């Protein structure tokens, strides 16, 4: 089986191919070089702000020189810098000192939320932690069924309601179950029907309030799942969810399906939220903790 760094590399291959950093070598860093670099960075969805900053620095440091390994190392370091939060990168999941660590997972339908929750279930159980999973999207029976499969496979405890049941009451029951069983982790999956935006946000707030009432300092993490191929749309979604429920991190999915992996930089630059995990495939192991160094190294081949 491929190691996780190989999976990461394979997952980011499309973006790496677009950037094609080895092709920079030996060229003179002139106007045409800078224009090409600008086009590549923008196509990779790095964002206008970060692209301008990077170009300015390359121009200052290397204009008139021949692009060499030093230039690659410089751009690599700058990208890592752009991706690293001011206070340093947090752990992939910050476990609370007093269990259950409560994770609230939000995101619009189609973002890869159910898949990401399944992958997180697998990860948390592989760490030997006991887990109660709350399927609060009571309208999509298929999503809850998918979680039931993973709960059973990994030995997690699933709490779900009847179709159409009040999601907050499912969250309530799940809190009771997690407390009664002294579970290490409670993970709450939520609905993502965006066409009823105000309703959705109210529903999420209600779930969050239940968690807050039942478990001290909960939710400890609020992860927003964003489709890495959604570009600016993803950023708008993040702003909306953050305003409503206050996110603590992003799970950025489907980076394997896109040459626009640079969106991780744009997200970091636009939102004050760290990317905590990235999805680089459909397999259960294809959710990787986000680490700026390894992410950028994978883009550089
Ligand atoms: P939800 O509606 O947000 O719950 O989305 P799903 O979890 O059902 O995912 C929607 C589709 O995206 C499914 O076909 C998933 O297999 C796929 N998907 C989710 N995450 C990834 C990923 O990281 N890479 C790829 N290639 N596909 C993904």
UniProtKB/TrEMBL annotation:
GO terms for biological process: SRP-dependent cotranslational protein targeting to membrane. Its EC number is 3.6.5.4. GO terms for molecular function: GTP binding; GTPase activity; signal recognition particle binding. Keywords: Cell inner membrane, Cell membrane, Cytoplasm, GTP-binding, Hydrolase, Membrane, Nucleotide-binding, Receptor. Residues 274-287 form the SRP54-type proteins GTP-binding domain. It catalyses: GTP + H2O = GDP + phosphate + H(+). One of its GO terms (cellular component) is plasma membrane. GTP binds at residues 107-114, 189-193, 253-256. Part of the signal recognition particle protein translocation system, which is composed of SRP and FtsY. Belongs to the GTP-binding SRP family. FtsY subfamily. This is Signal recognition particle receptor FtsY. The gene is ftsY.
């Amino acid at each position: 089986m491929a190691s996780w760094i190989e999976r990461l590399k394979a997952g980011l291959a499309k973006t790496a191919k677009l950037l094609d950093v080895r092709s920079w070598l030996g060229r003179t860093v002139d106007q045409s070089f800078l224009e090409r670099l600008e086009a590549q960075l923008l196509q990779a969805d790095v964002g206008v702000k970060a692209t301008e900053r990077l170009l300015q620095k390359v121009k200052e440091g290397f204009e008139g020189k021949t692009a060499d390994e030093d230039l690659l190392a410089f751009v690599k370091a700058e990208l890592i810098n752009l991706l690293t939060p001011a206070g340093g990168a947090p752990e992939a999941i910050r476990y609370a000192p007093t269990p259950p660590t409560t994770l609230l997972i939000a995101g619009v339908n189609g973002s890869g939320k159910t898949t990401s929750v399944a992958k997180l279930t697998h990860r948390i159980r592989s760490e030997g932690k006991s887990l109660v999973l709350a399927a609060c999207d009571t309208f999509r029976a298929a999503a809850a069924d998918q979680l039931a499969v993973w709960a059973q496979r990994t030995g997690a405890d699933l709490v779900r309601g009847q179709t159409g049941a009040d999601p907050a009451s499912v969250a309530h029951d799940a809190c009771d179950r997690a407390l009664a069983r002294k579970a290490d982790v409670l993970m709450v999956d939520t609905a993502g029907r965006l066409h009823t935006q105000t309703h959705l946000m109210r529903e999420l707030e209600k779930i969050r309030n239940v968690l807050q009432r039942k478990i001290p300092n909960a939710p400890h993490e609020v992860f927003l799942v964003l489709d890495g191929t959604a570009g600016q749309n993803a950023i708008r979604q993040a702003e909306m969810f953050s305003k409503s429920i206050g996110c603590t991190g992003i799970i950025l999915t489907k980076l394997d399906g896109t040459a626009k992996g640079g969106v991780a930089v744009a997200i970091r630059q636009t939102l004050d939220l760290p990317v905590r995990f990235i999805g680089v495939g459909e397999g259960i192991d294809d959710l990787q903790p986000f680490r700026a160094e390894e992410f950028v190294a994978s883009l550089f081949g």
